[in-house]
Structure formats: C-alpha cells, structure tokens
Specification:
- The chain has a domain of 28 residues.
- Helix content is 40%, strand content 0%.
- The radius of gyration is 13 Å and the shape is globular.
- The N and C termini lie far apart (28 Å).
- 5% of the residues are buried.
- The chain binds protoporphyrin IX containing FE.
- The site of protoporphyrin IX containing FE has 16 residues, from α2 and α3.
Length: 87
C-alpha cells in the first residue's frame, strides 16, 4: 500500500486523528458511523475526510464487515485520550 506521506504533501508534520474513545476522539461515534467514515470517507457531521486518510478509504473497501467491526472493537478497548494528538 502506498500512501502520501507528509513530506510529499508538503506539510511540516503529519496530522493525526484521535481514534480513542474520548469525547474529543471517536467516543461518541457508533459502529455505523465508523463504517461510513472508513468506507465513504465521511464523518458523522458530513464533512469529508481529507488526505492521507482519504487515500486509506479505497483500501478499506477490502475489509470484511467482521474485520471492520474487529477494528472498531479494538479502538473501543484502548484508553480514552482527551486531546487530539499534536494539539
Ligand atoms: C485501519 C487503519 C485506519 C483506521 C481504522 C482509521 C480511522 C480513521 C477515522 C475513523 C478517522 C476520522 C476521525 C475523526 O474525524 O475524528 C480518521 C482520520 C484520519 N486518519 Fe485514519 N485510519 C486508519 C489509517 C490511517 C492511515 C494509514 C493514515 C495515514 C497514513 C491515517 C491518517 C488519518 C488522518 C490524517 C486523519 C484526519 C483526516 C481529516 O482530518 O480529514 N489513517 N482515521
């Protein structure tokens, strides 16, 4: 899998999303919303996910429902971290 790394996109540091179960992360999301984000690059508020995450989405099409749910359960099992990384 080849992804656009920050050095290619010209950004000084990689942006990151808080995927922990914190309210500032994806704590308020449902599995259905997680599914929509990964398979349609759309957040619950309708905003699109940008690169490099947008480049991950075509690969997410290869995930089975069971694999996607396993990712979701893993992310639900990790400790909640309040602030977004890098903030
Ligand atoms: C199984 C792998 C991955 C999962 C489950 C995943 C999941 C997610 C989710 C759910 C979001 C939305 C979070 C939010 O809006 O609060 C997100 C955003 C993001 N992801 Fe991923 N991601 C994965 C892989 C990657 C990879 C490989 C990269 C970078 C190379 C990446 C970079 C990002 C970035 C930069 C955002 C923020 C995008 C934006 O603000 O529009 N992700 N990811």
């Amino acid at each position: 899998m080849e992804l656009a790394c920050p050095s290619r996109t010209g950004q000084a540091k990689p942006p990151a999303a808080n995927l922990t179960p914190a309210p500032s992360g994806i704590g308020g999301w449902t599995l259905a919303q997680f599914d929509t984000a990964l398979r349609q690059a759309k957040r619950p508020d309708g905003r699109p996910l940008v690169v490099p995450m947008a480049f991950v989405v075509p690969y997410a099409q290869n995930l089975t429902d069971m694999e996607l749910e396993a990712l979701w359960k893993h992310l639900r099992s990790i400790p909640a971290v309040p602030a977004s990384p890098g903030s």
